[in-house]
Amino acid sequence: MKLEGKVAVITGASMGIGEAIAKLFLQEGAKVVLCSRDLARTQAAEQRIGGGAKTLSVACDVSRRDQVDALMKATVDKFGRIDIFVNNAGFGLNDGVADMDMAEFRRMFDTNLFGAVECMQAVVPVMRQQGGGDIVNISSVSGHISTPYMSGYAATKHAMNAIGKAARMELLRHNINVLTVCPGYIATDFVKNMTKGKNPQRVGSSVKYAVTPDVVADATLQGLLKRKREVIVPRFYKWFIKLYQTSPSMVERTIRKRLKPTSQVMADAAKK
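RESULT FIELD:
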């Protein structure tokens, strides 16, 4: 088992990518703490992954520092240490720049970015004291390429990429690696659950390239074990990012042509 003896904490673990990572880490021998704002949903996920003596569910809103500190304490009290911390909590805002609700925009930053940084600040002292650890920030391909009607979400992920890569350089001397994972379109309820504006749109063609959360979980594990800087998943998005860097106008034209109402994108995804 590749994570035998390790203790992993995963935020946003009640579904999707977070649940898939929790399941894989548990299978690989880790003790796993699952958390989200909704304790009942987190406990349900814990049962689905085969929860037992090696798992713990905790309610935590990562935008609340008192709850983040309580999460750290509950983990150390139960398992004695924290070897891996996965920042996966987050949500999307599907609206245009000219119209998006600023309160929702700020709330998204509080969770997606500031919450992740609060978690890093809370777990780093634990990892320093025990001689090292690994922090995994689940970002997005949107952290490299902004798309229409997802600018606010992309902004949180661009910022997460910047924070994570800088923190990696700062913390390596403490034997703490920071891995940034950037998934593309993943077959989860992300689109269904995100906050939507008056006339939300999405890139419709992305649905056919969707992979399951298990693919992201496996790529995360491999990146963690190799102590990488960044993982793009699925891999073909690497070439799309490089194309955007060299020919942004061409990529932007393609994106604009493929925009569809979000409701239609969701219907297409349901058929897949």
